Amino acid sequence: MSGVNTTNFMNPSSFILLGIPGLESEHVWISIPFCAMYTTAILGNFTILLIVIMEQSLHAPMYYFLCMLAVIDLVLSTSILPKMLSIFWFNSREINFSACLTQLYFIPCFIGMESGILVALALDRYVAICDPLRHSTILTNPVVVKISLAVLLRGSLLVLPYPFLARRWPYCRTNIIAHTYCEYPSVLKLACADIRISSYYGLFMLLLVPVPDVCFITFSYTQILRAIFSLPTKEARIKTFGTCSSHLCVILLFYIPTVFSSLTHRFGNNVPLHFHIITANLYLLVPPMLNPIIYGVRTKQIRNSLIHPKGT
User: Fold this and answer.
1) One GO molecular-function annotation for this sequence (predicted)?
2) In the chain, what's the furthest Cα-to-Cα distance?
3) Which residues of the chain have pLDDT under 50?
4) What are the distances in angstroms from CA 234 to CA 86, 90, 261, 290?
5) ∠ at Cα 98 (93, 99), nearest 5°?
6) At 73, is the secondary structure helix, strand, or coil?
């Protein structure tokens, strides 16, 4: 195993990713469902992108945000899966220090972007249901562009200190990471310096990104549900609720595993390491795999475009 070092050094040339410690003999078998999820994510998200691009009737705010969600999911899953499979299939565990910092940046960056897109989709559903007559005048193309840029800038700039802080830490213990990718808390544990500023910034990020996003989404859906329950007939309530049910499923699919993984990091000292690592991989792979399926099955316009494409 090359690159292992337990002597003093400031910046290692590389780290060693162990994969899933304790389950090394099962790596090949574990890779099968992970590879299947990644393949499904690639096919599903590219399908969503192609349908929205080719179908003129889908050139609307909701579907623009869905395209952004698809691109984010593709980048997020691709940022971990190829290296993970190289560990499982070829025992290629070494990762360059700069590549590790790149992973350490891209993963929380695109998680933040995905959270922002879910907020944008909640806003779209809020306006469409609570103020439908003004939907086209409120969510114009310039407004959609501004929201998209805000989501991208927030996700990319707020996480920017992560790799810079990580590059400044001295690593005098080991360069072995018990994980399948360079997760920020896992790299943080290797530093042999006062890392309180990094811990505080991680808490600051938690308070600045997911907490406000969840609060806004909760407020939006409180108003949406009030508007739905005020409709005169049961059929109208069911039909209207159906227009946002896919978004609700995606929200739960994203936030529940994310919160669970964060809690196991901070409070799960008794959680087996292999369980934590598998969970940390699943919450980055399952949403990209299921998001296009959920929207494809539950969104009538996408489903009809997929079943009856133009020219058939």
Assistant:
1) olfactory receptor activity
2) 72
3) 1-8
4) 53, 57, 38, 29
5) 45
6) helix
pTM (2 d.p.): 0.90
Rounded to 5°, the CA angle 108-114-119 comes to: 130
CB 136 within 8 A of CB 124: no
For residue 4, what pLDDT is reported?
45
Query: CA 76, CA 96: separation in Å to the nearest integer?
Result: 19
Which of these, 143, 135, 140, lies nearest to 243 by C-alpha position?
135
304 token code pair: 């009809």
Q: What sign does the dihedral 119-160-95-3 (CA atoms) show?
A: negative
Q: SS3 for 203?
A: helix
| Tokens encoding 250 | 């995606």
pLDDT at site 307:
75
Contact assessment for residue 99 and residue 3, using Cβ atoms and an 8 Å cutoff: no
User: How many Å from the N-terminal Cα to the C-terminal Cα in the chain?
Assistant: 56
| pLDDT computed for residue 100 by the predictor | 93
Distance CA(75)–CA(85), nearest Å, equals 16
pLDDT, tens digit, for every residue of 153-168?
Answer: 999 999 999 998 888 8
CB 227 within 8 Å of CB 129:
yes
The answer to whether 288 touches 41, Cβ cutoff 8 Å, is yes
95 forms beta bridges with 15
Reported as a single tens digit per residue, the pLDDT across 111-145 is: 999 999 999 999 999 999 999 889 989 999 999 99
Residue 196: burial class (beta carbons within 10 Å; 0-12, 13-18, 19+): exposed
Q: Which two tokens mark 194?
A: 């006062």
The first and second tokens of residue 249, run together, are: 């499923």
